[in-house]
Write the structure tokens for this entry.
Amino acid sequence: MHCFNQSPKLFGRKKFWIACVCLLGCQQLRAQNAVPLNDLSFFDNPSSNWKIVANAQADIVQDEVLTVKDGNGILVNLPGKKGAKDLFTKAVYGDADLELDYMMAKGSNSGIYLQGRYEIQLLDSWGTVNPKSGDNGGIYERWDDSKPEGQQGYDGHAPRQNASRAPGLWQHMKISFQAPRFDANGQKISNAKVIYVWLNGVLIQDNVELAGPTRGAFDTKEAATGPLRLQGDHGPVAFRNIRITSYDKPHPILSSLKYWVYKGGDIKGDDYKKLKPESEGTSPVLSSNQSKLSNDFLIRYTGNIQVKEAGEYAFKLSVPGGKGAFRINGADAVTLTENRGEGKVQLQPGDHPFELFYSKTVDWAKPALGLTVAGPGIREYLLSDANVSNNDPVDPILINATSNTILRSFSDLPGGIRVTHGVNVGSPELLHYTYDLDKGMIVEIWRGGFLDATPMWHDRGDGSSRPAGSVQYLGKPVPAIEKLSDANAAWALDTAGTGYRPKGYVLNADDVPAFKYIIYGSPVNDASSVMEKGQGIHREITVANTVDGLFYHLASGNIETLGNGLYAIDDKSYYIRLDDATGAKAIVRDAGGKQELIIPIQKKLTYSIIF
């Protein structure tokens, strides 16, 4: 079963990627516990400002306006003028992950207190260019009233970038928290830690140590556990899809470790049994350091792994520069793999014998054996020593848009769609978009960093780049303009028969592009500008010649009509706002199991994409 007779494949001309075992913060095998939102029974003595509803909608113009519809599935805080209180869970948590969607009213303020003591700030920070610790996704400051005025707040942690969405849009947050540790006498021996916070697809907090409770903690005495607390005395906010994963079970333990090191990494099957080991012995830990050889070696471990809980356990094995396998109870837990692999196995409580192999044959790769495990109530945990390989040996090639910036590249969209004639347009307001020259439409818009060009410029590259911020995709690319026999006619997926010809773009004095193309014999000018504070893109489409039956494709997906020319798209992911349609009326129609928002266009159309 241990077929080490094939050499690792080389990718590219120089080297292949060393992939490591995924450590804390990566996707793990675990059952997430959804918080039931049919009523408030999950929470401890909720005050009247907290309600369960079916729908929530915020006003994008008026401060702290959040309207709701009766039903269930969404938790809302409507604080009113006085008497509003925070909301606490009945259960208490130590190490835990929290994942949820939330919606801020305009100008609203709220917060998530881990263990009731450490606040992740929730705030309407839409349009903030340089966020601080008090902005959305920040770890709030600690506070000391004895310090001089202006210095009481300290030890706050601003988000890495502002990934916030507009009021009334659903935002998605993932938090991983490690509780403080205490010895047998109750003395703290290690601080609490926010392992990560992801906001709308962007890592905004990474491995932040918390020396003590933040301002507003329900008590200042730290403990191993505490309730989840949602702030309710500031502003309106809505929550849904709340999932809490508690990690309260003991880690698996390795014991009786023995190792053998053989010279020659390219060994077939069980041929190592015919060889005399270069070294052998017992070890307190799994490690590649047992080998005195830097290459062309095989290291074999045996031992026992003890688990306390029955269930499915996930293992990840890192064997850079070669191959490896991991077996429990004589069966493969991680099958023979190059560089890295993973697998799952059902285990009962008790000790289970295991066998691990690491065959290294690539001379320039550094030996670095890694093994992790995750299981029921167990956050992914490193079973080997800390000598594991980096996840990616290549420093990312990031492009910042300190001025209006344009870069051509391929762009990959969900569903395996590759835009081969994409133009990425970046702005110093940190609001960027990709324009598809093949279709005459914007396919993605994002806030934060501009581009990660690593896939395009590292080594041989593949010609693609990817957004370096919080991205909103705008649906499957289709031609922006189509000629329809009537408002119910199907929208074509390509420009065949339209006479479409892209004519590139023209830069204005500020280096902002206006895209040009011809369709149905008429020249079209397609210009976009960044809205104030980077709150979205203002679009102006001008058609030179009048063509009967022309329609413009504004959006597709789930569409809600909010009034005054405002539409919420894809379950309140972003807004389309009609600014000037020269009297034309937009149409929401069903099309192939989804909805489309289209509008007749004659000479000019202006609208905004807001998120």
Summary: Helices lie at 454-457.
